[in-house]
User: What shape does this take?
Amino acid sequence: MEKKERAGFSSKLGVILASAGSAVGLGNIWRFPYEAGNHGGAAFILVYLGCVLMLGIPIMLAELIIGRQARANTGEAFDKLAPGTPWKWVGLVGVLTGILILSYYSVVAGWTLEFIGEAVTNSFADKQAGDFIQSFNAFTTNSWRPVIWTVTFLLLTHFIIVRGVEKGIEKSSKIMMPVLFLLMILMAVCTALLPGAGAGLTFLLKPDFGKVNADVFLGAMGQAFFSLSVGMGVLITYGSYFKKDTNLTKTAFSVGMIDTLVAILSGFIIFPAAFAVGVEPDSGSGLVFITLPNVFQQAFGEIPVLAYIFSVMFYLLLALAALTSTISLHEVATSYLHEHYRLTRKRAATWVTTACIILATLCSLSLGVGKNMTIFGFTLFNLFDNITAKVLLPVGGFFISIFVGWYLDKNVVRSELTNGGTLRLPIYQLIVFILKFLAPIAIVCIFANELGLL
Ligand code: PHE
Assistant: This one.
C-alpha cells in the first residue's frame, strides 16, 4: 500500500519559529523569574547559562537527530531506531511527561486569560500595590473560575492541533513569535526607567556566589530543560517534521539563543519592576501576575491609556507564547496516538485533551480547596511542576544523550548533522563528546549533589 506522506513544516523560518515557539513560553516569562528569584538571582542565571550550553542545546540536537532520522513521533522513534529494545520506554515516558506538563502548564496558561480579561476591562487601574497580591490569591484559590479558563485554554490548543502541523502549528508561530519579542524589548526599556529599578538590575547582574548550593544546580538544570522543551521528546516529534535540508545544528543554536534571550529579557522586565514596587524577588509563582499589573499602573500612571495598552498586549502575548508551547506538548501525545493506534488526528487529540482537562482541573483545585491534600509535601500542582522539570526531563535528557552518544551508529549521527555530508561541521567531535560524556556525567553529578552524595 502506498504510504501517505507525513505532515511536515514547509519553510526554514517555520521550523525555527515553531521550535522556538515551543521553547519560549511560560517557562521563560513566568517560571524563569521565580526560579531565579528563589535561588538568589545573578548566580543562578550564570549556572543556568552553563546548563543551556552544556546540556540543553546538545541534547536538543540529539532529539532532532533522533526525530529526523526515525521520521516518527516520540513514542515510536526509539523503537524504529532500536527495534525490540527497552529504549522505547524513553519515548513512552516522554509522552507521559508531556501530558503531566501540559496539565499543570495549562492552569497557568488559563490564568493569563483571566488577566487578559482584567486588562481589557481596565480593572487594574484602581488597584493599589497590596491589592494585586490579594486579588491574585483570591483568584487562584477560587474553585471554578481558574478551572474554566484552564479548560478554555486546552480547547484552544485542541483546535489548533486538529488543524494540523503546517496550517496550525507553523502558521500561528510565525505571527506570534516576532510580536512577542518586540513587545518584550519595549517593556524591558520601560521598566528599567522606573524609579527604584536599580536594585532589580543589581540582583540580576551581581552574582552572590555564597548563595550557590546543590538546589541552585538542580533548579538551574531543571529550568534549562524545561525552558528549552528538552528531555521529553517535543523536539523528536518536531524534528520528524523537518526537511532533509534543514541544518539541525543551526536550528538548535538559534532556538537556544532565542529562548535564552527571552528568559533574560523577562528577568530585565520582572526584577526591576518587582524591586520598584517593593515585591520580594522570591515571592514565588505569582511574581509575573502580581508585579506586572502594578508596574503598568506605576510606570504609565500619568498616561492611563498607555498603561491600558501595555497590560492588554502583555497578557495577550503571554497567552500566545503559552499557546505555542501547549501546542507542542499536545502534539507529542496526539501524534503518538494518531500514528501508533491509527486513530484519526481529531480523535487522538480528543483523548489527549480529555485526559489533560481531568488532570488540569485537579491541579487547579490543588491550589485552593485541595491545598491540604499534599503528596510528598507538595500540592498536585507543585508536584507536577517539580517532578517534571527537576526529575523527568533531566532523566529523559540523560537517556537521550546516551542513546545518541553511544547507541546510535556514528555514521547516522554524522550524516544527520551534516545533511549527508553536504554541510561542514567543525564542532562535530565536540558535540559527540558532550553527548557521550559531559552531559550524562553532569546530570548524574547534579542529582548526586542534590541527594548529598557528593
Ligand atoms: N519550554 C516551554 C516553556 O518554556 C515549556 C515546555 C516544556 C514545552 C517542555 C514543551 C516541553 O514555556
User: Anything to note?
Assistant: The pocket of phenylalanine is lined by residues 22-23, 25-28, 101, 226-227, 229, 232, 234, 325, 328-329 (CB under 6 Å). DSSP finds 18 helices and no strands in the chain. Residues 73 and 240 are 7 Å apart (CA to CA). The first helix runs from residue 12 to 23.
